[in-house]
């Protein structure tokens, strides 16, 4: 070898050896075994439900397919970083896993990026496919009409209210508001009767991030005739009446001091404050929140509150003027998708079909406090009885809507939060909607925007 | 001591250069081969990413969406957008405020003051003060950020203390977020300036100060006319280093305020992160990084020029 002929100091040789090893390590990546299916997912924040579910899937898959291995690769990174991480992994065939756990609203962007493989062909040959509720189909369907993921579970959104506070304020319980005005009226009644209580909370402004846009603003917008994105024309909508009206609702909440004090509303941790303090302590009368909220109050949660289901009631968020379908919900949820780089997509789908069969889906949604996407699981007594609010929140799946799943969405959503924050702090809805229109035009390009009449 | 290590004497550099140029081909192999692994590693892990990010700044590289599949060269589009983007201007102004408040004024003056006050104190006092100040510097940035967030938060220790004194609570993180992160950065970084100045002050000959005092100069006059001119080079070196350190502060701000509320503490590094990773615009994010690099380069060039002018006097 040339190195030994030069009689270099041992140190140089060692360094060269290390370098050679490092280079070999880079090229190798994950050992590409022909008979291995890898699945990448997240366990951040103590989220073990999927990990536990997949640990049951692994032996089932390996038993049904002798010679094959299902390799679990859990990551433990915060949600935003998880997204970056899996997107980086999917950029190269040598690092791309076969199966990847994706938030359904990343799917369109990742399809455009060429990261994901279409699943229609496999779904067609799978008898369980028809069990997946039609309303949640759009969440995993890309612009080309093909499905790119199989959902594990979803979530819905609605109103939680403190029965005693509403009743003592003269609001009839069980409470069933039919219009936005009914919601505001109930909040005003609480305000008159209990000046020390926060009448109503909705997430709003930039600190609460996506919760403001999705749980707050889009829950209002879904009750109007307008949307952020028009499916029919494929254009983003600005200056719509519904957008203005939704901002006006936000303005009313803070102008009339029906919402929490502004510095509380703009606290990034408001989500956990609502769940761990305000609702259990009876300091908040009405909360527009997510179906998973009760997870915190279970025996295993962060703030056990055994009486929650007696002290709180829950009802759907109504449409603006009571128009059809009368109640609204927004949904998210995660899916298992197959990488476009996977050398064995059929086997990857085989593993996914085991992970999302009736039994495993039921286990998963029970552990994760999610809403089932399979009709047979939704109707399963074991699911319905697990939590008194399950039946109600899973019923919202029939009317639920999804966010526009495009690569530009996070930025558009950011502008929604900015618009909310500016009406909270004194701008008029018209001014905020005008700035939103200009910013969105800048983000998606003028040819991708339509102005509502 | 420190001032001489921070600016290596030119003689040493010259000696090294002539030493390496002399030998023939065999001599080249003698130093090139052992150096090769290190150079290769540097090229792979340092130069490579830098070249990539310069290239990426001129493309529409993205983490997701159609641009991730077909990354195209877009010329100066990112830079044109950047100039027209109010968020970039906002971030630039905030970065300069952060730099001026926390480094040039805060760390620098506080560090100098501490170094001056610690002169001629007994060993116990000196050891105690340096341990406390250096302790803040040694703490990881994440710990510092959490500590300050807990201290300044609405239900934090500061408000508890104010309430005990009967004073109204303040909501620093909401009312003056940039001020909150400046305070935290001063707290964290002052030790560095203090150490540089302590070392420099030891180099000031005591007899000069003595004679100034004999001539009737007051303490302030001695400082102004004797001490400061003698440690000028250390001041400049310190300014360069803390400027570069402060321009790249990310963790502290990201953890304390996340750049918010709104964009009221969103400095250039935080904006860059948001664009590249939250919005997936790698191209635009790296363009912002290049701007930051240019700002840092410009500031250091100014300092280096000043330092060279000083040196020739």
Write structural notes for this entry:
The complex is a heterodimer of chains A (453) and B (313). Chain A is of the alpha/beta class and 453 residues long. Chain A contains 20 helices and 15 strands. A 5-stranded mixed sheet of chain A has the order 2-1-3-13-4, with helices on both faces. A 4-stranded mixed sheet of chain A has the order 6-9-5-10. The longest helix of chain A is centred in the N-terminal third of the chain and has 19 residues, at 10-28. Chain B has 17 helices and no strands. Chain B has 2 domains: 9-56, no CATH class; 77-312, MetI-like fold. The longest helix of chain B is centred in the N-terminal third of the chain and has 33 residues, at 86-118. Residues 1-21 of chain B have low confidence and may be disordered.
Number of strands of chain A: 15
Overall geometric form of chain A: globular
Total beta strand runs of chain B: 0
According to CATH, what is the topology of the largest domain in chain A? D-Maltodextrin-Binding Protein, domain 2
Mean pLDDT of chain A: 88
Main sheet record of chain B: none
Q: Give start-end ranges of low-pLDDT stretches of chain B.
A: 1-21
Counting helices, strands and paired strands, the structural category of chain B is mainly alpha
- Calculate Rg of chain A over CA atoms: 25 Å
Calculate the terminal CA-CA distance of chain A, rounded to whole Å.
78 Å
Shape of chain B: globular
Helix content of chain B: over 70%
Pfam families (chain A): SBP_bac_1
Organism (chain A): Allonocardiopsis opalescens
Keywords (chain A): Signal
Protein name (chain A): Carbohydrate ABC transporter substrate-binding protein (CUT1 family)
């Amino acid at each position: 070898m040339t190195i030994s002929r030069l009689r270099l100091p041992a140190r140089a040789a060692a360094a060269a050896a290390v370098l050679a090893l490092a280079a070999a390590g880079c090229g190798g990546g994950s050992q590409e075994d022909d008979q291995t299916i890898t699945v990448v997912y997240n366990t951040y924040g103590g989220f073990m439900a999927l990990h536990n579910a997949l640990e049951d899937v692994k032996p089932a898959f390996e038993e049904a397919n002798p010679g094959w291995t299902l390799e679990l690769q859990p990551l433990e990174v915060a949600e935003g970083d998880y997204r970056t991480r899996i997107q980086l992994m999917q950029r190269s065939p040598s690092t791309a896993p076969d199966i990847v756990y994706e938030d359904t609203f990343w799917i369109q962007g990742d399809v455009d990026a060429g990261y994901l493989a279409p699943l229609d062909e496999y779904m067609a040959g799978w008898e369980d496919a028809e069990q997946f509720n039609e309303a949640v189909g759009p969440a995993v369907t890309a612009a080309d009409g093909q499905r790119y993921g199989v959902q594990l579970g979803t979530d819905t959104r609605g109103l939680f209210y403190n029965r005693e506070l509403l009743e003592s304020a003269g609001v009839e319980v069980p409470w069933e508001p039919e219009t936005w005005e009914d919601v505001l009226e109930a909040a005003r009644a609480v305000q008159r009767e209990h000046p020390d209580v926060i009448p109503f909370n909705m997430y709003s402004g930039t600190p609460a991030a996506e919760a403001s846009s999705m749980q707050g603003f889009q829950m209002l917008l879904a009750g109007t005739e307008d949307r952020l994105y028009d499916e029919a024309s494929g254009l983003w909508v600005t200056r719509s009446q519904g957008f203005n009206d939704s901002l006006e609702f936000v303005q009313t909440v803070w102008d009339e001091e029906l919402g929490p004090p502004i510095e509380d509303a703009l606290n990034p941790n408001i989500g956990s404050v609502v769940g761990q303090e305000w609702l259990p302590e009876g300091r908040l009368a009405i909360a527009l929140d997510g179906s998973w909220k009760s997870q915190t109050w279970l025996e295993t949660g962060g703030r056990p509150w055994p009486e929650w289901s007696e002290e709180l009631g829950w009802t759907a968020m109504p449409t603006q003027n009571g128009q059809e379908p009368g109640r609204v919900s927004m949904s998210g949820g995660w899916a298992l998708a197959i990488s476009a780089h996977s050398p064995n997509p059929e086997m990857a789908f085989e593993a996914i079909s085991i992970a999302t069969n009736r039994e495993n889906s039921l286990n998963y949604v029970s552990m994760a406090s999610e809403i089932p996407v399979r009709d047979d699981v939704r109707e399963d007594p074991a699911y319905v009885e697990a939590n008194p609010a399950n039946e109600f929140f899973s019923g919202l799946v029939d009317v639920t809507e999804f966010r526009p799943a495009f690569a530009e969405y996070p930025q558009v959503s950011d502008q929604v939060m900015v618009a909310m924050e500016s009406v909270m702090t004194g701008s008029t809805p018209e001014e905020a909607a005008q700035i939103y229109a200009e910013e969105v035009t800048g983000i998606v390009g003028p040819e991708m925007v339509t102005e509502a009449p | 001591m420190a001032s001489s290590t921070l600016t290596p004497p030119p003689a040493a550099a010259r000696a090294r250069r002539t030493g390496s140029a002399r030998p023939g081909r065999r001599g080249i192999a003698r130093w090139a081969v052992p150096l090769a692994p290190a150079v290769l590693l540097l090229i792979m892990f340092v130069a490579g990413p830098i070249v990539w990010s310069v290239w990426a700044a001129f493309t529409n590289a993205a983490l997701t969406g159609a641009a991730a599949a077909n990354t195209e060269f877009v010329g100066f589009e990112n830079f044109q957008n950047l100039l027209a983007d109010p968020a970039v201007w906002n971030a630039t102004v905030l970065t300069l405020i952060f730099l001026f408040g926390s480094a040039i004024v805060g760390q620098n003056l506080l560090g100098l003051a501490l170094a001056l006050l610690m002169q001629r104190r007994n060993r116990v006092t000196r050891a105690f003060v340096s341990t406390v100040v250096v302790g803040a510097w040694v703490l990881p940035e994440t710990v510092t950020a959490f500590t300050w967030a807990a201290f300044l938060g609405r239900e934090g220790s500061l408000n508890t203390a104010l309430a005990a004194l009967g004073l109204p609570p303040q909501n620093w993180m909401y009312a003056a977020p940039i001020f909150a992160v400046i305070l935290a950065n001063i707290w964290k970084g002052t030790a560095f300036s203090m150490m540089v100045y302590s070392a420099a002050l030891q180099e000031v000959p005591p007899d000069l100060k003595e004679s100034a005092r004999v001539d009737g100069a007051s303490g302030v006059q001695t400082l102004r006319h004797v001490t400061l001119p003698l440690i000028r080079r250390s001041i400049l070196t310190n300014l360069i280093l803390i400027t570069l350190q402060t321009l790249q502060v990310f963790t502290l701000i990201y953890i304390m305020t996340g750049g918010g509320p709104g964009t009221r503490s969103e400095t250039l590094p935080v904006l860059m992160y948001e664009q590249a990773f939250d919005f997936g615009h790698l191209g635009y994010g790296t363009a912002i990084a290049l701007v930051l690099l240019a700002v840092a380069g410009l500031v250091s060039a100014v300092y280096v020029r000043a330092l060279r002018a000083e040196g020739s006097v």
